[in-house]
Amino acid sequence: xxxxxxxxxxxxxxxxxxxxxxxxxxxxxxxxxxxxxxxxxxxxxxxxxxxxxxxxxxxxxxxxxxxxxxxxxxxxxxxxxxxxxxxxxxxxxxxxxxxxxxxxxxxxxxxxxxxxxxxxxxxxxxxxxxxxxxxxxxxx
Length: 140
Prior knowledge:
Blueprint: H1 2-5, E1 6-7, E2 10-11, E3 15-19, E4 25-30, E5 35-37, E6 40-42, H2 44-52, E7 57-66, E8 72-80, H3 90-107, E9 116-119, H4 133-137
């Protein structure tokens, strides 16, 4: 049983990270949070960090949403700086979504880019404040 959680002196906790040439550790998230995008594994944290830098984004969470055809899409759920946007006319929401998707395309590899943006009033969280991505993916 101990072998299942240790590899040599390393504890296998399900966290993904990399160490650069200078010894800095970069956290990429949990193994069970990775999304499948065109056969690539994508960390939601990397996509969220990118989108969080957009001036019109107050908060963001991304998740993989499975379509009935068994294809998966990366969807960005955004709490916009403009609190009225989730309730605005479809044309205004679509224009902002296109703007944000173009921003993502300039800063992320194509396979990491969200294919859809949904504007929300808030992100669902646990009592400890963690985003509940699973609940976002279940939204209709």
